[in-house]
Design goal:
mainly alpha; about 0% strand; about 425 residues; Growth Hormone, Chain: A
Length: about 425
C-alpha cells in the first residue's frame, strides 16, 4: 500500500524523500535554469550600484537608478498575471529571460566602452524591471505545472526558496570581488549569460498543452474579484501594508544608503558584498531551520522574525564596525526566510485556489508599490538629515510596526486550523 506523504509531518520525512521532486524532469530543468539565472540576478545589483558610484554618480543618482528598476515591476505586475494566463507561463518566462539577458549585455557593453551616463542606466534598468514584472506572476503560475505529484508541491517550493537564499549568499559576495577586481561590466556580462541558461532550460520543458483563454470575463472583472477576496481578509491586507511600509522606510534606504556607508566608512564594494552575502547566508539558515516546522501561530511568528530587519540598519546608523553590521545582516536574513515561508504557506492554505493568483498579485503590488518612492527619496533625505538619521528612523519604525501588528488579534491569534480545508 502506497504511503500518503502529504500526511507525514515534514520533520519526520527523510532527506531523500524531500528531494524526490528532483525526479520530476520538468521541475529539474526549471530548477537548474532558475538557480543559474538567480545567481546572476543576485550579482547584478552590486555591480549596478557601484557602476553609478564609480561613474561619479551621487546617492540621489543611485536612488533614481534603483527606483527605475522597481517602478516598472509595480506597473506591469497585475497585467503580467493576465498575460501569463493568456499566453502560457512558459512563453512569458522565456521572453522575460531573453529580454533581461539582452538588457544586461547592452549594459555591460556600455560600461566597458565608457559610455554609460546615468540616464542610459535608468532606461536599461527600467526595461530590466519590465522583464521582472512579467516574470513574477508567471513564475507563480508555472510551478504547479512542473510537479505532476501534488504531494511534492511543498518540497518544490522549499527547494526554490532555498535556491533564492543560496543565490543571495554567493551572488553578492562574488559580485563584490569581481566588481573590485574586474569592474561592474564583467558582472553584468555574467548575468546576461545566466539569463541565457535560464532561457535554454525553459525551452527544454515539456509541459502539457493548454486551451486558449475563453475570454468569458474581462480582465477588470477578474481583478475586481481578486480585490474583493484580498480586502475581505484583515490578516492579509494588514501584513501587506506592513510590508509595503517596510520597503518604503527600511529596506529602500538600506539598499541606497548601505553602499554609500560602505564606501565611506567600511571597505567599499568588497565589504558591502560581504554584508549582503551574509544576509543571504542567514536566509539559507532560516530556510533550513524551517524545514519540518509548522508553528501554531504562523503570522505571529513571521512578524516576530521580521523584527530582525531593524538590526543591520541600526548598526549602520550607529557607526558600528563591520562585524556588527554583518551580524545584524545574518539575523535579518534568517528572519526574511521565516517570514517568506510562513506568509507564502498561509496564503496558499487560506486563499481559495481559483483566486490565489490574483490575490497574490495584489499582495505583491501592495508590498512593492512604495519601494520606488523610498529608493528615490533616500538620497535626498540623507543629504538633508544625514545618512545615520534616515537609517535609524527605519530601524525604529520596523520595531514599532512589528509591535503594532502583533497587537492585532487577526494576526496574533491566527492559527492553521482556522483556514479553509480542501
Amino acid at each position: 500500500m502506497a504511503m500518503d506523504t502529504e500526511r507525514i509531518p515534514a520533520r519526520r520525512r527523510r532527506l531523500g524523500d524531500r528531494l524526490a521532486v528532483l525526479g520530476e524532469r520538468d521541475f529539474t530543468w526549471f530548477f537548474t535554469g532558475y538557480t543559474t539565472s538567480l545567481l546572476g540576478s543576485s550579482m547584478a545589483p552590486v555591480a549596478v550600484a557601484f557602476a553609478v558610484l564609480d561613474g561619479g554618480g551621487s546617492g540621489s543618482d543611485l536612488g533614481w537608478v534603483m527606483a527605475a528598476r522597481i517602478l516598472p515591476v509595480v506597473v506591469v505586475l497585475l497585467a503580467g498575471g493576465v498575460i501569463a494566463d493568456r499566453l502560457g507561463s512558459r512563453r512569458v518566462l522565456l521572453g522575460s529571460d531573453v529580454l533581461r539577458g539582452l538588457v544586461q549585455a547592452v549594459f555591460a557593453g556600455l560600461l566597458a566602452a565608457g559610455h554609460a551616463p546615468v540616464w542610459a542606466m535608468v532606461v536599461l534598468v527600467a526595461v530590466w524591471g519590465i522583464g521582472e514584472g512579467l516574470f513574477m506572476p508567471a513564475f507563480g503560475a508555472i510551478v504547479p505545472a512542473l510537479v505532476r505529484r501534488k504531494e511534492l508541491m511543498a518540497d518544490a517550493n522549499t527547494l526554490l526558496g532555498l535556491s533564492r537564499s543560496v543565490s543571495t549568499v554567493v551572488g553578492p559576495a562574488v559580485a563584490g570581488l569581481v566588481t573590485a577586481t574586474r569592474g561592474p561590466a564583467a558582472v553584468l556580462l555574467v548575468d546576461a549569460v545566466t539569463y541565457g541558461v535560464g532561457a535554454f532550460a525553459l525551452a527544454r520543458l515539456r509541459l502539457p498543452g493548454r486551451a486558449a483563454a475563453d475570454g468569458g470575463e474581462s480582465m477588470l472583472r477578474e481583478l475586481r474579484a481578486g480585490w474583493s477576496e484580498f480586502t475581505a481578509r484583515p490578516w492579509l491586507w494588514i501584513t501587506t501594508a506592513q510590508m509595503g511600509l517596510f520597503n518604503l522606510l527600511v529596506w529602500a534606504p538600506f539598499l541606497v544608503l548601505g553602499p554609500l556607508t560602505a564606501q565611506r566608512d567600511l571597505g567599499g564594494a568588497r565589504d558591502w558584498g560581504l554584508v549582503m552575502g551574509v544576509y543571504g547566508a542567514g536566509a539559507v539558515l532560516g530556510g533550513v531551520l524551517m524545514l519540518g516546522r509548522r508553528p501554531g501561530r504562523p503570522l505571529a511568528v513571521a512578524t516576530l522574525a521580521g523584527l530582525g530587519w531593524a538590526l543591520p540598519s541600526g548598526a549602520l546608523a550607529a557607526g558600528a564596525s563591520l562585524p556588527w553590521v554583518v551580524a545584524g545582516a545574518l539575523v535579518a536574513g534568517a528572519g526574511s526566510a521565516v517570514c517568506g515561508t510562513l506568509y507564502a504557506t498561509t496564503m496558499q492554505e487560506w486563499v481559495p485556489v481559483e483566486l490565489l493568483g490574483r490575490v497574490t498579485s495584489f499582495g505583491a503590488l501592495g508590498s512593492f508599490v512604495l519601494g520606488p518612492l523610498g529608493l528615490a527619496a533616500a538620497g535626498p533625505l540623507a543629504a538633508r538629515s544625514g545618512t545615520g538619521t534616515v537609517l535609524l528612523l527605519g530601524s525604529l519604525w520596523q520595531l514599532a510596526a512589528g509591535a503594532v501588528v502583533l497587537g492585532i488579534p487577526a494576526v496574533r491569534n491566527r492559527r492553521w486550523e482556522e483556514g479553509p480545508v480542501d
